[in-house]
Amino acid sequence: MLNKERLTFILKYWFLSRVIIIGISLITINYFPFKPTYPYWQSDLEPLAPRYLWTWAAFDGAHYLRIAKNGYDAYTQVFFPGYPLLIRLLNPIFNNYLLSGLLIANLSFIIFLLGLYSLLLRNWPEKLVQKALKIYLFFPTTFFFNSLYTESLFMCLTVLFFNFLDQKHWFKASIMAFLASLTRVVGIFLGLALLIEWLIKKGSWSIKGIIYFIVSIFGFLSYLLFLKVNFNNPWLFIKSLSLWEKNKFILFPQTFWRYLKMLTMINLGWDKYYLVVLELIAACLFLYLLIISFRKIKWSYFIFSCGCFLLPLSTGTFSSLPRYVLILFPLFIILAELLHKNKSLNLIYWCFSWLMLIINVFLFVSGEFVS
């Protein structure tokens, strides 16, 4: 399905978006002060490469590198092992954990874009598919696909999973879901998506379908077993969330109310106020997209999107939500539809999206938490 023209389109806009992001990062590095708000940059990042490279391993990236090198220590169990394991496996080739991690992330991102184009093209017009990819490539937090984070790898596995599911390659799909659930906790929702597709296409349960489901969530189950054997607590990754104040279940309407109250606080600095606004916009926009996507997208897409969106919303904070929404690929095509129908809305969206992308890259490279 990906002919020369489509491949050229993907690579052209991928290259353009990455040049812009890298350009903003280089300007930030050369002309603005560096005030890191995260640990380990001097001990674990700086010795590995120049700053224009190791800056993309800030915050969570440093934790993934430490896990890849040394294994788990206190409160790092929140980071699932799929990505660090892959970094460790690739490291003997480069003898540099940072370069190994960045290579995995950037190659996974390109494969994700190729797979996403093929996947969406089966159900939507090509103009909308191309618009959805442009939204992805210039989204305010798209730079995380460059970074030493799990977004690229998880989305690569996810689109491969749904492509295999469309082609009724159940075993291949379950293997992709297995790897995804070893990479992020929300990978378990791919297992639910597989069950939904099995029921729709087969019409009833079967032993084979149950086996595929178990395989699809076995990455998650194997991590629970690892935590039980090594730390005597299979749910330690939930307890580890306490460091980020995300280990409590709270109904998300309460979180919306909390954020609205935060907007009236005059003692917030501009950067904190900006972050509150960014997180609230992400929550409102994607909640709206999720609601209107009902009956517009496949049930498997909808179940996956609901799980991946509502799970972080139930932690009592929208922190990191502008990054988490990157995995909600079915909602990006719905957003593309909305913008395609309304030129004024399209103009407003792109103005804010570009502005926020510039600010977010600047903050991230400067050492400030963004998402």
Attribute tags:
mainly alpha, 71% helix, 371 residues, 19 helices
Number of domains: 1
β-sheet strand percentage:
under 5%
Number of helices: 19
Our Rg estimate from Cα atoms comes to 20 Å
Sheet/helix structural class? mainly alpha
Q: Whole-number average pLDDT?
A: 92
What general outline do the C-alpha atoms trace?
Answer: globular
- Helicity, as a percent range: over 70%
Order of helices and strands: HHHHHHHHHHHHHHHHHHH
Distance N to C terminus: 35 Å
Question: Total number of β-strand segments?
Answer: 0
Major β-sheet profile: none
Give unreliable regions as ranges: none
How would the blueprint of this fold be written?
Layout: H1 4-31, H2 41-45, H3 51-54, H4 60-70, H5 82-94, H6 97-121, H7 126-137, H8 151-166, H9 170-183, H10 188-202, H11 207-216, H12 218-231, H13 236-240, H14 252-262, H15 270-293, H16 299-313, H17 321-324, H18 329-341, H19 343-366
Helix pairs in contact: 1-6, 1-7, 1-19, 4-5, 5-6, 6-7, 6-8, 7-18, 8-9, 9-10, 9-11, 9-12, 10-11, 10-16, 14-15, 15-16, 15-18, 18-19
